[in-house]
Specification:
Layout lengths: L2 H17 L13 H10 L6 E2 L1 H7 L4 E4 L3 H6 L6 E2 L19 E4 L4 H12 L5 E4 L2 H7 L4 E2 L5 E2 L1 E3 L15 E3 L1
Parallel strand pairs: 1-5, 2-3, 2-4, 4-5, 8-9
Antiparallel strand pairs: 6-7
Length: 176
């Protein structure tokens, strides 16, 4: 076999791998194994993920955006998070954030925020992360959330009754 034949053969076997390439999965996880499996099934890993504990460490040094709907955000959100929306996504809500700023997006479990993260990438933002397990995992690990007035609350909007099963924190008051 000559070099071109070998190169052609290699490209046939490796091209599908490159075409289906995804962003490398991080060590982000959900503590509940069933929830972790469900989140893993929902994500395409088209943007990097961040573990909840990592965000807790960096919370004051990054831009955090809630990609749920306004009704969900008003019930509770991660302190410091700004409303960005999903169906009502509006890039003007990003303000003058530099394109290379570290941005973390979240929703209930990470599905909607991954889609919004991809929109941010298309807008030129280069340092976007999806919070793995999102606000449900945040609550499950016992981290505080705030209401629309900035006061701490135990309420969490779980989207609907079916999705509420993934909020395991007994102190959480589930609303849908």
């Amino acid at each position: 076999m000559n070099f071109n034949t070998i190169l052609f053969a290699l490209s046939i076997f490796t091209l599908p791998t490159f075409c289906n390439a995804q962003v490398q999965k991080s060590d982000a996880h959900c503590n509940d194994k069933k929830f972790n499996k469900r989140v893993n099934q929902l994500l395409k890993y088209s943007i990097p993920t961040m573990d909840v504990d990592q965000l807790k460490k960096e919370q004051k040094d990054v831009y955090i955006f809630d990609t749920r709907e306004l009704e969900e955000y008003k019930v509770s959100h991660i302190e410091g998070a700004q409303y960005l929306g999903y169906d009502t996504f509006d890039p003007s809500r990003l303000g003058e954030i530099p394109k290379d700023s570290k941005i973390i997006v979240y929703c209930s479990v990470g599905y909607r925020s991954e889609k919004i993260g991809n929109k941010l990438k298309k807008l030129g933002y280069t340092n976007v992360y999806n919070l793995y397990g999102s606000i449900f995992e945040w609550i499950n690990r016992g981290y505080d959330v705030v209401d629309q007035n900035g006061g701490k609350t135990n309420k969490i909007h779980t989207y609907n009754k079916k999705w509420s099963q993934w909020v395991k924190n007994k102190k959480a008051e589930k609303i849908w």
